[in-house]
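Sample 1 of the test manifest.
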Amino acid sequence: MPSLANTENKLAVEITDLHKSFGSLEVLKGINLSVRPGEVICMLGASGSGKSTLLRCINQLTVQDRGEILIYGDPIGFVRSPDGKMKEAGTGTLAKQRSHIGFVFQQFNLWPHRTVLGNITDALIIVKKLTEEQAEKIALDRLEEVGLTDWKDEYPSTLSGGQQQRVAIARMLAMEPDVMLFDEPTSALDPERVGEVIDVMRELAQKGHTMILATHELNFARDTADRAIFIDQGVIVEEGPAKDFFKNPKSDKLRSFLKRMGNG
Amino acid sequence: MEFEFRFDIVWNNLSLLLEGVQTTIVLSLLTMVLGTVIGLFVAIIRLRVKRIYAVPFIIYVEVFRGTPGLIQIVWIYYCLPIVTGFQLGELTSLVIAMALNVGAYLSEVFRAGIQGVDKGHIEAAAALGFRPGQITRRVVVPQAAYRMIPAIGNVFVSAIKLSSLCSVLGMAELMYQGQIIIANFFRPIEVFTVVAFIYLIMAYTTSLFMMYLEWKFAWVRRRDNSFWEKFKYISRAAFSLKPQGDI
Ligand SMILES: Nc1ncnc2c1ncn2[C@@H]1O[C@H](COP(=O)(O)OP(=O)(O)OP(=O)(O)O)[C@@H](O)[C@H]1O
Ligand SMILES: [Mg+2]
């Protein structure tokens, strides 16, 4: 939920003319995207189309070459000085900005040297400066939400992929981010483990969180997303309400993509 | 012709060897400490600065890894006073020479250990709002330290053996004392056998200590932390089987 008071009329995320190249490879070619608070957006696209890069730009794990990203009106990676000029944010400011944006990785990225509980409490203690007891209480609540309370003292390596991803989601939730980003959260899972993670994400969507997901789970996108976006070679080719999107794809590219993904 | 082992000569002169052991331990420990400082410094510089500024450090590492330790020690022992104009004590210059050698190897161990930390773990911390220093302390160091311990142990063991080269410059450490006894009694086989055995004890003690550290750092402990489990772990480590506690 937005932590800022005056957020009613603001967009949760507003991306304007975002460009990013790696060397001579132009990966994002002018992305524009607005996300309202509480909206759930699914991003589809072939491998290499730039989905991860776009998500990573939103919390500045990747820094764009050009273009602007506003989170509830504030530019990420930059600070607006009183005279209206933009200045690059220092590492402390950037860290602070990132703490309001949740990110779930394809590979979970839990810290192997910390227990499940430690993975969740660390950021609360270090970033949010909570006491150990406060952090633990929040962590246990979030673990309950993802159904892993019994695993709190285990180390990540003893968990299945699906369980690890649920812990990673709990870790992100504990920070109460304003926007949640998911980069193919189920792609590294065994097929029989996908469902448990999808269920957790569906619940988050129903609770009204603002979510942007890159995913290949078409069913999830169809049922749960408010809006779907199709990215191809660094441009948004098509976007629309998730329901129409799958029923009546307009562009040939999306039609053939959906066919390849087995969407009848 | 029959050869008769005369170990009694060694036993009669054991006190000489033990004096040498003391010097060897002092030389080795000082070398390890100073070498670790140098190694950390060089590794961090090499990871932090642009490649051109790292060139002098790359040259340092390659020179000290690629030339014989004996020549390094002799060269620094004689040339350091000439180049710097300082007359350092015998012990000091030998320790500096060996620490430069050990530091070159350790810097590579540290660099690989730090670089070996999964980038995803670092990004996860960054995404949660950790500042760079916090990422280093909370994510990089704990993971790198654990993984580097066996490699650090190897370098430390080499440092003990490296110190034997100081005998060439008249430092009365274990090897030197052994050679004195040999010169007096012409019994190289017996003396060297015992000297080698003493080096082995020192090296193995170092290895055991590193295994102990590894065990202390092992974050994936068994849920069962009983004495029996600890005993099994240490004894497995002592016989160089792969320690438990996979990452
Ligand atoms: N750090 C990087 N350096 C160089 N090239 C990169 C980097 N990150 C991504 N790329 C390239 O950018 C392109 C887009 O990558 P991106 O990861 O955004 O695609 P994606 O849509 O997420 O694909 P996937 O479905 O495989 O995850 C790819 O061709 C990739 O090789
Ligand atoms: Mg991707």
